[in-house]
Amino acid sequence: MAKTIRDELKDKFFKLGGTQEEVPNDLTIRSMQKALYNLDGGKNENLTNDSQTIQGMVNAENNMDVNEIGAVSVTPKDPDDTIYGYTVSDLQENIKIVGNKITGTLKYVTEGQLADHWGAGNFLAIDLADEDSSEATYKIGYYPSEGSGFVEFTPPDDAAGKVTDKYNQNLYVFKIVDGVEHKQIFDLSGLKLETE
After folding, report:
1. How many C-beta atoms surround the C-beta of residue 78 within 10 A?
2. Residues of the chain with CATH 2.60.40
3. Does domain 73-193 have CATH number 2.60.40?
4. pLDDT of 13-53, one tens digit each?
5. Which of 58, 55, 98 is nearest to 76 (CA)?
6. Whether pTM exceeds 0.85
7. b vs e for 101-120, b when ≥16 Cβ sit within 10 Å of the residue's Cβ?
């Protein structure tokens, strides 16, 4: 039986050193995300007024993690560009990234390299850049994912990933400097996912 998002969050909580006594009584996704945030060094001054929402916790994590080091630039690929044999306009339209929120439409793809490898579905294509990359390493991925986990990249680069659950899945971009991971979390709930 596949693990639920709550189970995955609970497993991560214990791996980071959390104890059973610290597990929230209600075991909701939001309460587990907040518990992970606090265990991972989050501070109350980073919390926003909407910290009881998943989006609020995403904002709080971004406040905590992207501070003194420069963030990775994440932008939609140009519609006329190509990626994995597709013209980007065949994958998506009107994609916008404002702050940590991604909006627009992902088309339903049934053929080609991405569909052959990951199965038919919706794929987001982005460009990644960082002006201050000399001392850093990078990873990118969706969580929960289709199984690829987080993969390394070297900016400038591009990426395309499968979006399967826009409400519970986020895009993560990690920049690792001196062994410390700084993460950016992008909310996908504003995307429109076309179906067959």
Report:
1. 11
2. 73-193
3. yes
4. 666 666 666 666 655 555 656 665 665 555 444 444 444 45
5. 98
6. no
7. bbbeebbebeeeebbeebee
